[in-house]
HPr kinase/phosphorylase (Haloarcula argentinensis), 304 residues
Amino acid sequence: MATTNAATYEAFGLTVRSAFDVPELPPAETAPDGRVDVTITEERIPRPLSAASGTTFHAVTEREYYLLYDAATVRICDGTSIAVDPAEGVPSEVLRHVLVGPALNHLLDQRGYFVLHASTVSIDGRAVAFVGESGVGKTTTAMACLLDGHRVLSDDVAAIALDDEGPIVRSGYPSMKLDPEAVEAFDPPVEPPEQVHDGRPRHFYGLRHDQPATPVPLERIYLLEDGETIEVESVRPNEQIMALVDNTYTLGALEADGQAVSNFDACGEIVDKTNIRRLRRPRDLDTIRDVAARIQSDLKSDSC
């Protein structure tokens, strides 16, 4: 699975030297001294003895995480290293979904980001995140904004830092996972996927726009829900906090010492400084352009 020579990429503002070919990440220059922020290596990884049977995530400490999947065993340490033990014969695209998804997302947690399970876009220079249960349409809503001329910052995760001026979002990498049927139906401005595996329902499609080089201020978080019509409504503050807790990507890591308290505090700070609303809409692809227009209208109504 590993390449002959490690390549250097960029993701979430970090340089990543990877033993695996990851075409979804843009190439990056290595520093003159050869240093990088993150290394991805291939090695044998024994299952931790303390990991419960059937679990897919295990935290030995807040600095050492394990992902225990059928496709691979992954060890994430100190926010700087990802070691991967692929299963025999695992397709490249399946492994890449693990690397640029859960592995990188848990590494961001170790680097001090609040990692929200969300798709994030930039609208008029402000970050807007979409959260909700699996399958509710986070990526589809981000694609609707892409069709409306806005930039996708990250697919499936929002890496949030708590700045003095308020929460800011670091853009991820210029790809998003899309259903080929949706791409064919709407023709979004994306590049064809590379090294695909027929067993995957969605593939990585490259974004044609540049990613912001600096973090983007977080303006709005929408809690996505199904509804018969498109409507936006306010959410009570205590419900906002619990929604952020429930949608913390690294929820399993909260068992590590001190993580639950610090995560709750981060959720409270985000609620204090970010507008969080509920967005109901039909789960119908025919309405996605109307959804994008409603989001734009809602954002403009706040700025008036």
The domain at 115-303 is CATH 3.40.50 (Rossmann fold).
